[in-house]
Amino acid sequence: MVVFEGLSESYTSLMNAAKEAMSRAYVPYSNFQVGAALLDDEGQVHYGCNIENAAYSPTNCAERTALYRAVADGKRPGQFQAIAVIGDTDTPIAPCGVCRQVLVELCSPEMPVIMGNLKGQWTISTVSGILPGAFTPASLDNRER
Ligand code: THU
Question: Hey, which of 27, 50, 79, 106 would disulfide with 41, CB 3.0 to 4.6 Å?
């Protein structure tokens, strides 16, 4: 993984939005805040933070909060330009496997995924780059009917 220390202007502002979202995390159990900012095709930014639960498994990651929120607000799959994710990690945060699968479902394979940390380090990949060989909606197309 290549870790950079400077970011283009538009991605910097998206990462700043993710950082703002991070401060809104509800994390009484892990005390590990994560923030996400999802840029849509109209230039709107959808915020996401992780939201934990005393029963643990209902916990929702920052990335999925942003994606689900955007869909509930009227965006459709494919209407997203980029997502930035940030956490207080030693190296740029790595989205969990479940979030990678949800990104595959709702975003184009080429969509940039910008991952950062509070040290200002970041790395960039794409939706297909972070989940190669994914099971996708198209995987269902050859069902016997
Ligand atoms: N978490 C995220 O929100 N996104 C990630 O990419 C990794 C993990 C959250 C889930 C949980 O609230 C906490 O971080 C610790 O796993």
Answer: 79
Range of the domain at 74: 9-130
Query: What CATH number is given to the structural domain containing 117?
Result: 3.40.140.10
Provide the whole-model pTM: 0.94
For position 142, what pLDDT does the model report?
75
Maximal C-alpha separation, the chain: 52
Query: What is the pLDDT at residue 143?
Result: 72
Q: Whose CA is nearest to atom 3 of ligand 1?
A: 61
The answer as to whether 141 is a domain residue is no
CB of 30 within 6 A of ligand 1: the answer is yes
Distance CA 81, CA 20 (A): 19
Q: Enumerate residues 6+ apart whose C-beta is below 8 A from 42.
A: none
Is 59 within the bounds of a domain? yes
Task: Please give the tally of structural domains in the chain.
Answer: 1
Say whether 105 is catalytic. no
Rounded to the nearest whole angstrom, what is the distance from the C-alpha of residue 125 to the centroid of ligand 1? 19
Q: Report whether residue 102 contacts ligand 1, using a CB cutoff of 6 Å.
A: no
